[in-house]
Specification:
With 269 residues, the protein is an alpha/beta fold. It has helices at residues 3-20, 45-53, 68-77, 81-84, 103-109, 141-149, 164-171, 176-199, 251-262, and strands at residues 25-31, 55-61, 113-118, 133-136, 155-161, 202-207, 226-233. The protein has a 7-stranded mixed beta sheet with strand order 2-7-6-1-5-3-4, with helices on both faces. The longest helix has 24 residues, at 176-199.
């Protein structure tokens, strides 16, 4: 056989094989109480680097009311509070957990190992049988997420990070102390993000549940509803997400489209 033809076949097969490699790591980070205007190259260099490499909006919108458990329920289910039935911000261990399908059911249907690590106990409401591993850790949720990422396989991880929600109500949103806490969170996330970038075949989303104003959150003030949406991937063109009118209920539909695209069930690229 002609050497040029052999070479062409080899390159073609390598290209097909490389394209067919599955999406290996999906990481979704929700930084509780993060005001989108707080993100900058100085304050959050690790997150800001993903903003410049991918796409983002500072005009995301929380649920009404803009509260942690209500907003995360909308993220996980793609349903409004009226549709999901979760319009309060309370849950205790031992109480019933969510009965709706979530992003973990979606990820499991595409063969991902699923992990859920959160720093507010009330978010245990969102644990369902589709979650393979879940840990509540007020101070070390990032560390809990780091271990499975280093293991072989295809991972889908949702990480909730607290801290700003404690500083904001005491010192104020956008205060010096608020920025200091955010810089600390950014530094904690750096190693986790770098590990995923090095592994390749990734999708990273960084967002929040709500923001606040002065020392208040959960009210009808416009700032309380604000949140960012950052998306970066080496598998998908994400420029179409730049400055989108993102709402927390959009997370699940976005994941549905991207995972279907990666599996060849959709023409989206």
């Amino acid at each position: 056989m002609n050497k040029s033809i052999v070479g062409f076949i080899f390159v073609f097969l390598w290209t097909v094989s490389a394209f067919a490699a599955p999406l290996s790591n999906v990481l979704i980070v929700s930084i509780d109480a993060l005001h989108p205007d707080a993100l900058s190259a100085k304050t959050t260099p690790a997150i800001y680097a993903q903003m410049t490499q991918g796409a983002y909006t500072r005009n995301g919108m929380s649920t009404d009311p803009p509260l942690t458990l209500v907003s995360h329920t909308a993220m996980f289910t793609g349903l409004s509070p009226a549709e999901s039935g979760k319009s309060d911000n309370n849950w205790q261990p031992g109480e019933p957990t969510i009965a709706k399908n979530t992003i973990f059911d979606l990820a499991g249907s595409y063969g991902f190992w699923t992990g859920y690590y959160y720093s507010k106990e009330k978010l245990g409401f969102l644990v369902n049988p589709a979650v393979k591993d879940h840990r509540f850790s007020k101070d070390n949720a990032v560390d809990k997420a780091f271990s499975p990422i280093q293991q072989p396989g295809n991972h889908f991880i949702f990480l909730h990070v607290s801290g700003l929600d404690s500083v904001g109500p005491v010192k104020g949103w956008m205060s010096q102390e608020y920025f200091e806490e955010l810089s600390f969170i950014d530094e904690m996330l750096r190693s986790l993000i770098d590990t995923i970038l090095q592994k390749g075949d990734y999708l990273i989303i960084i967002t929040s549940d709500h923001a606040g104003h002065e020392t208040v959150h959960g009210s009808n003030h416009p700032d309380d509803f604000k949140l960012p949406f950052v998306i970066v991937s080496d598998r998908f063109k994400v420029d179409r997400f730049q400055n989108i009118a993102y709402r927390v209920v959009d997370l699940k539909p976005i994941l549905e489209r991207l995972l279907a695209s990666d599996s060849g069930q959709s023409s989206i690229h």
